[in-house]
Each structure stands twice: as C-alpha cells, then as structure tokens.
Design brief:
Elements (H helix, E strand, L loop, with lengths): L1 E2 L5 H5 L5 E2 L6 E5 L2 E5 L3 E5 L3 E8 L2 E10 L2 E8 L24 E3 L6 E6 L5 E9 L2 E9 L5 E10 L5 E2 L1 E8 L6 E3 L9 E4 L8 E5 L2 E7 L1 H6 L29 E6 L9 E7 L2 E3 L3 E3 L9 E2 L4 E11 L8 H16 L10 H14 L5 H8 L15 E6 L2 E6 L9 E3 L6 H14 L3 H15 L11 E3 L4 E3 L1 E3 L14 E5 L2 E2 H18 L5 H15 L9 E2 L15 H15 L2 H18 L8 H4 L21 H18 L2 H14 L34 H15 L2 H13 L7 H5 L35 H15 L2 E4 L4 E4 L3 E9 L2 E8 L12 E8 L4 E7 L3 E7 L3 E7 L3
Parallel strand pairs: 2-10, 9-15, 35-39, 38-40
Antiparallel strand pairs: 1-8, 3-4, 4-5, 5-6, 6-7, 7-8, 8-15, 10-11, 11-12, 12-13, 13-25, 14-24, 15-21, 16-18, 17-20, 17-23, 18-19, 19-25, 20-21, 22-23, 26-27, 28-29, 29-30, 31-32, 33-34, 35-36, 37-38, 39-42, 40-41
Helix pairs in contact: 4-18, 6-7, 6-8, 6-18, 8-9, 8-10, 9-10, 10-11, 10-13, 11-13, 13-14, 13-15, 14-15, 15-16, 15-18
Length: about 900
C-alpha cells in the first residue's frame, strides 16, 4: 500500500480552467466537513476518514482511494487502467486478444476531463468524463462529511445503433498482494467465471489484509429502477426441470461482480463491477464467454447507468472488515423493505389453521407427483402416494408418530437430522396447539418426542432417521465408499447408512432441551441427552473439533473430521449446562468455541456436511485460488450464532457475544436485502441462500436464520439484527400456496396444493419452482420458527433502555417514546396495506423491556389505552385493525 504525497502550497493555491465546476470549486475549500483541494492537474476530496485523489496525465486520469491511519493517509485502492496490449496470461475477462475490444469497455480507460462540485446535501463530488469511439462516459464520485465509503455512479451513452455491448466495467486494484480472506457472492471453478447477479442477495466483494479493507457494494436502487433489456441475455447451459419460461423481451441485461487474485494485470487483487452477460451453469457457476463476439448483446437503450459504494479502511479489526459492509447493506436497503407489507399476508395464527391440516394430509411426492410438478401440472391426490404426511403408531408400547419426508427417495422416513428435524416441528405444534386450543396438535408433538426418545443409544449417540415402512432406525444418509482423499469426491449417498451423524444428534438434543424448557416438560429428556453429552466430551478431538460422523463401532470417520459444525454442539452443551450445572459440559463447549475462533472465523471456512455432500458436491480440498475463497455454507453459521449465544448466556463472557455477532454479520451477507427485478418467481426479500456454491432464493433454512438473528439481536441490542431476523421469519411463509399470496404478488405461480410450500425457488440460477423436502423446511418449519420468535420477543418488541423496537406479526413500529409513566406506541398494520388487504382485526402481544418496575399506561396510535404493571420484561396484548 502507498502513502499519499502532501500537496504543495503552490498546488493548493492554483486554479485552472481545466478544473470545470458547476458551481466552481477551486483552490482549497471545506464543505461541511469535506475538504476539497483543486489544481490544474489534481483534485483531492477528503473527510476525516477517507480521501480520493484524481490526477490528470497525458493518457487519462489516475484514481486513488485512501484511508486515514492516525496522522497519515494510506492508499488502499486505485482504479485499473490497463494498457494495450495486455500480457499473455491476462485473465480472460480482461484480455484484449481475439476479442471484440470495441465492445469490452473499462470505464477508467475513457476518462479525460474532471471537475469538482458540491450538491444540495453538502456532499462533495468529482465528475470524471470522456469520449471514445464507443460513446460518452461519465463517472461521479460523492463523499459525505461522515461517510465511511465513497458513492460512485457511472453513466454511458453508446454510439452504436442499435446499441450493442459485451461489457461495461469499473475495475480496481486492492493494494495488498495476498489478502487474509476475501468474500464474494460465489466461487469460480474456471478462469472465465464471474459472479452473476442471480446471486446478488447482499452483493459485495470484500478483501482484507491485516487492518486494511477494500469492498465494493453495488447500488441496488439503481439496479432496480434503471433496467436495460437484452432479449438474448442470460443463456442457460443444458436442460433444466421445473423451469418457468420468461418472455424474452423482459430479460434484463445482467450485471456482474468479479474478483481475481490472478488477473495477470497486476500483482494486486483485482475487483470489478458493471454490465456483462454470463452463461448460467448448474447451481452456482456463471461463465462469461470471452471468445470474439460470443457475449455481445443488443440492448434496449443507448443509455446505461450503474452505481456502487466503495469502502476503504486501514483500521478494521483483523478478519472482520465485512461487518461494516453487512450493516451498511441492511441500513441502505433492507431496513426500508422491512417496513413494507410483503411477504406476510395474514397473522401467523391463521397460517397455522390452514397449513397444518394441509401438511398432514398431503400424500406426495411420488415419482408421478414429481413428473407432474416438472410439467407445471397440479397435484392429483387420487393418483399420489399411499401415505399421508402425518403418521402415527405405537413404539415400545407408547403412542408415537412423526411427519415423514416428502421426496420419493425418503418417502417413509421420519427425520431427526441436522437439516430437517421433527422435534423442531413439535415445538411449533405445541405452541399453536395451546394458543388455538387444538389438543390434537399438542398430542402430535408429544408423539414426536416419544419417537425421538426411542432412538437406540450407543454409548450415548443415536441415529437420525426412523423408517416407517421398515419400522427401524437408520443412522443418517451418508456413508463414504473410499479411503479418505480430500482431493477426491467419493460416493456418499446411503439412505440406510449405519453411520452416526453428530450434528444431527446434537440438533435433536438441543431441540429436545428447548422443548422441555419452554414448551412442555418431559422427564425422560434430560437423562436421555445427558448420555449423548458424555459421548461428545469423551470423543472430542484434541484440537476441539468433533468428527462429523462415527461408524457403528464408534470409530471417527476421516471425512469431514475438520469441520465447522461445532456451533450445534456448543448450543446443546451450553443448554445442558444451564439445566444441570455440570461444568464438564461447559468446558467441552468452550473448547469447541475456541476451535471455531481459531480455525473457522479468520478465513470463514464454514465446512459442514452440506458444503460438500449434497447437491453442490465437491471434494473437501476445494479452494478457489482466483477469488481466495473456501466453500462456505450457512448451516454451520446458523448453528454458530445459536451456540455462541447460548454459551454467552451461560458465562456472561462478552468476547463470546462479540464472536457470535461477527458470525451473524457474516451470515447476513447471504440474506436478500431487496427484491431484484430479475427474480420473477416470488417475493424474495428477507430470504436466504444456502452457500457460496448454490444459487437458490428463499431457501427454507431462513426460518432457522430468523430464530438465530432475533436471539442475537436481542442480546446485543442491535435493531438491524432484530429486523433481519423478523424479515427472515416472514420470508419463510412466502412460498405457501394461498390465494392471498397469489393476489398480492408474493407467490403468483404456486405448484403445491393450498397451504403447502416448496423448499426454495430458482435453485439452479434460473426461474424455477423446485420440489419440497418436507414440512420442516416448509410450512411446518415456518410455523415452528414463528412460535420460537414470538416466544422470544412477542408480536411487537420494545426495549426502552436500548432504544430498539421491531414489529413481528403483521405490523411495523412507526415510533415509540416514554414520557414519565406514559408510553406512546405507533404501529403500522402491514396486512391492511397489501394490494388485497387483510381486513380483520387480530391480537398482537407487546413485550416491553428496559423499564423500571411500576405502573404505566400504554397508548396505541394515540387512541387505545392499556394499563400495564411492569415487574421486569412484561407482555400485554393489543388488538390491531380494530376500526
């Protein structure tokens, strides 16, 4: 990295006609905290944290972006202006050999003039402009007095008629030769790959080396409102099932991000953003075809525009620079969406009355069902499977039962797994059964717990799958067929495996403890899970990592012996310690937390079984050296947030809370903070993706993200994490087939029957309606997570001490304040603001924290008055929607 040279006194006093302005700014000036230095050859703008320098030369303008380090300025980023001709080993996207160079436009190469302005918001701005044979170019860089990033907008008018383009990119270099870690929306598997906008959930490229960080986050407002159409864009590699065809005239010209640590143009990492098309390859790979003219597209307009925020810092906490970017994305985009009506269309309690009966009676998915869904035909109960989804029976003389999986390969399986878990469903059934006075739901929950506790233990550990047809337990779905070689992907599916899977056992045990503590006590639970806790304590590896699998004779399986699944074990052990006060469980949990902090967080190596041994399969040694990324899966991140939060609650160790917060901020980079114009299948805001090598939207793990983010948000007092958690929870209801979802544009083209949901949408990077895995990552899981979030914070949560407030169940909080013993709360009824409004009144529980004990009066929307007696965190019920 470079330190900037101070401007000379002569330079600071000079002005020139070459510095164009409107209004003119020249010499040295200050605009509300932004200092401007302008000379004939150089413009510098700076606030207390950031500086940008623009220097004219004979061949263009050099752009340099600095961050303050105590008393000096350190150059962190500069714009890429590669010369022609480029080296032979240049990355394909930036090469000038055998390509249509006249349609491959790097903005920085076409800028020759500059001027400095101030705008009505008292921001300083520098406008760079220029002409070339291809068209006219303009780049505006804004800096506000208190900003931690530059805001940059690019606009271009193409000369060609009709307008044709291969790409228009803004490219930069991060001046650190080897980053400690990088983040981008996905990985690459070949040099021509890029990051397509189909994975722009919370899009950003982030690079960090020591305390130095550079990051680029696309402007999603511009991307949403300034669409450019290209009928030939977004080609798809191969045939895909469950596809939704889109009229070609509505296809937008894509934008991309790129990160390349081996660009061949510099020893420094290169990152870029702008318009470019790509070929959609299976799951998560997006390849730009660089052969001459192959990716040239005819556009709907000559006018192109995009923008982005550019972050630079040299004072970031090591390995944690992404936190500022993650928070920025929510503040700039997500928080506004969170106050809009969709995707919830009715109170959560009404979903319960519709979804549970539908889920229990559903008889799919047979092979015939799958074929119908792939052909966009309706469910046919008369020609579906032989079994309803809810199954009940006796086991060991006790009433038992469970919700079976729906995919045909697991049709008879009742699962207690790291993915889908019947005990999670049991908590929802108990909650909604008690609230709705439906004893049949409570009975079903008890039957599930009985079945879970019947799993035979082997020195404490137990299997994860009960097969209803065979009336026997299977260990899990994985069994490797070869000696361990991390560079080779073995055959791994075995649906009757005798392996024990530790994450499945820990998740079941943690959920059983939560059920016992908060939903319904069961005297059999603690003795059962204590035996498993002893198993963990005895078999933890020396480094603090618990192997992912054990054989039937309890030998550790070498596959995934290094893993990031420790969060789920920490969660279980911390909750057991809270119940039993046995310190050995706390000690084991701490060892696993130390492993996560030392081995996973620094480079975000979120290795769990799904990362390698599911639909986005890959060898364990996979590493993307071009982007500097490891495979990363959100499943283990969710577990880490829950586990570290539980451990903090047991110990009061604020460092653990800080680490949980870091994980939550990284997990949040996989959440959709907007509704993209190119996602046509459903309303996707708030939903999650599974990993950096998968491509779905609205993946139903988002209900679990909702639970974890609300929990950490409450502990930290962070409004943004509470909002994120609520948005994730609401998004878990998006894909339910219901007339209100169709009428309100939440899910206009459902495939499953009324009250039933698919697991996700657009799984392979194109408009798609895929299948479901079962009720837990579906409507049942959404209701279970709603129960847990409502248990944690109610339907409205207020913390008067921390000044945070969030609406959960169909409402948002406009404002709240306290004047002595009077509390004013103003709420928006989001359900009444839908295109097809929900017009009934409905009850909402308000939880109030941070108040001294005493008598208060709570006013709702300056009308309804409620007397409240506070003795700690207090709940009271209000009615929303009463006329």
């Amino acid at each position: 990295m470079s330190t900037s040279k101070p401007l000379s006194r002569r330079d600071l006093l000079l002005t020139s006609a070459a510095v164009l302005s409107s209004p003119r700014v020249s010499g040295t000036q200050s605009i509300s905290g932004v200092r401007i230095h302008a000379t004939p050859k150089q413009i510098v703008i700076e606030n207390e944290m950031l500086r940008a320098s623009f220097t004219r030369s004979a061949d263009g303008i050099e752009q340099e972006y600095y961050a303050r380090n105590d008393a000096s300025w350190v150059r962190v980023v500069r714009a890429l202006r590669p010369a022609n001709s480029r080296p032979e080993d240049t990355a394909p996207l930036y090469s000038d050999r055998d390509v249509a160079t006249e349609h491959r436009l790097l903005v920085a190469n076409s800028l020759q003039q500059m001027r400095v302005d101030k705008d009505q918001d008292n921001r300083a701005s520098v406008t760079l402009s220029g002409d070339s044979r291809a068209g006219k170019f303009q780049q505006v860089i804004w800096l506000a007095p208190d900003a931690n990033c530059f805001h940059i907008q690019v606009s271009t008018r193409l000369n060609s008629d009709p307008p044709r383009l291969e790409y228009l990119l803004s490219a930069f270099l991060f001046e650190s030769e080897k980053p400690d870690y990088t983040h981008a929306p996905c990985m690459k598997r070949e040099p021509a790959d890029v990051m397509g906008d189909r994975v722009f959930h919370s899009p950003a490229t982030i690079l960090q080396s020591g305390h130095s960080v550079a990051a680029l986050a696309p402007d999603l407002h511009i991307l949403k409102t300034h669409n450019v159409y290209a009928p030939d864009a977004r080609p798809i590699d191969g045939q895909r099932q469950f596809r939704i065809l889109q009229p070609r005239e509505s296809v937008t010209m894509p934008v991309i991000l790129d990160v390349d640590l081996e660009s061949g143009l510099s020893r420094y990492p290169l990152f870029s953003y702008g318009f470019a098309d790509y070929l959609t390859q299976q799951h998560m790979y997006w390849r730009h075809d660089n052969s001459k003219g192959a990716s040239l597209r005819t556009l709907s307009t000559n006018e192109l525009r995009y923008g982005f925020d550019l972050f630079v810092s040299v004072q970031a906490k090591p390995h944690s620079g992404y936190q500022a970017v993650s928070r920025h994305l929510w503040a700039r985009y997500g928080s506004g969406y969170a106050r809009e009506p969709k995707p919830q269309a009715m109170p959560f309690s009404e979903y319960a009355t519709i979804c549970y009966p539908a889920a229990f009676e559903y008889r799919g998915d047979t092979a015939e069902d799958t074929k119908r869904y792939s052909e966009r035909k309706a469910y046919d109960a008369e020609h579906s499977g032989s079994l309803p989804t809810w199954l009940e029976f006796e086991i060991e003389g006790r009433p038992a039962g469970g919700v079976r999986a729906t995919p045909s390969q697991w049709y008879y399986d009742i699962q207690f797994m790291g993915w889908w878990n019947n005990v999670h469903l049991a908590q929802g059934m108990t909650y909604w059964g008690v609230r709705g006075r439906d004893r049949s739901l409570v009975d079903k929950a008890r039957r599930i717990v009985t079945l879970a506790l019947s799993a035979p233990q082997n020195h404490g550990i137990f299997p994860a799958v009960y097969n209803y047809k065979d009336q026997r337990w299977h260990g899990c779905y994985w069994k490797m067929d070869a000696a361990y070689d991390p560079a080779v992907l073995p055959k791994y599916w075995d649906f009757a495996s005798d392996y024990y899977q530790t994450c499945s056992a820990s998740k079941t045990a943690a959920l059983l403890l939560r059920y016992h503590k908060y939903y319904e006590p069961n005297a059999r639970i603690i003795p059962y899970v204590t035996g498993y806790a002893d198993f963990i304590s005895a078999r933890l590896d020396q480094n603090g990592c618990l192997p992912a699998w054990f054989t039937k004779d309890l030998s550790p399986v070498p596959y995934l012996r290094f893993n990031a699944e420790g969060g789920v074990h920490i969660w279980f052990l911390a909750e057991l310690f809270a119940t039993t006060s046995e310190t050995k469980y706390l000690d084991t949990a701490r060892r696993q937390a130390d492993f996560l902090v030392a081995n996973i967080l620094p480079q975000q190596r979120w290795y769990d079984f799904e990362t390698f041994y599911s639909c986005a399969s890959k060898p364990e040694a996979t590493y993307d050296r071009r982007t500097g990324q490891w495979p990363r899966c959100t499943l283990s991140m969710i577990w880490a947030v829950d586990g570290l939060s539980s451990l903090y609650e047991c110990t009061g160790d604020t460092e653990l809370l800080s680490v949980a917060e870091q994980v939550a901020d990284y997990l949040s980079l996989y959440q959709s903070v907007w509704q993209p114009p190119f996602i046509i299948t459903a309303y996707a805001f708030g939903g999650f993706i599974s990993q950096n090598s998968d491509a779905e939207w609205l993946d139903m793990r988002q209900c679990l993200c909702g639970e974890a983010l609300v929990r950490i948000g409450k502990l930290t007092g962070r409004q943004d994490l509470l909002e994120r958690g609520v948005a994730a929870l609401r998004s878990a209801f998006s894909l339910i087939n219901h007339p209100r979802h169709i009428a309100n544009g939440i899910f206009p083209m459902p495939s499953y029957p009324l009250g039933i949901t698919a697991e996700n949408i657009d799984h392979e990077g194109l408009p798609q309606l895929p299948l479901r895995s079962g009720s837990d990552w579906g409507e049942g899981g959404a209701l279970a997570s709603a129960a847990e979030v409502l248990r944690q914070i109610g339907g409205i949560y207020l913390d008067l001490e921390k000044n945070i407030a969030v609406g959960v169940d169909g409402v948002s909080v406009k404002s709240f304040r306290r004047v002595e013993q009077h509390l004013d709360l103003e709420v928006n009824n989001l359900l009444a603001s839908l295109s097809l409004p929900y017009e009934k009144s409905f009850p909402v529980e308000v939880e109030m924290a941070g108040l001294a004990a005493g008598a208060y009066q709570l006013s709702i929307n300056k009308g309804q008055l409620i007397d409240v007696i506070v003795k700690g965190p207090t709940r009271t019920s209000i009615v929303v929607g009463r006329q």
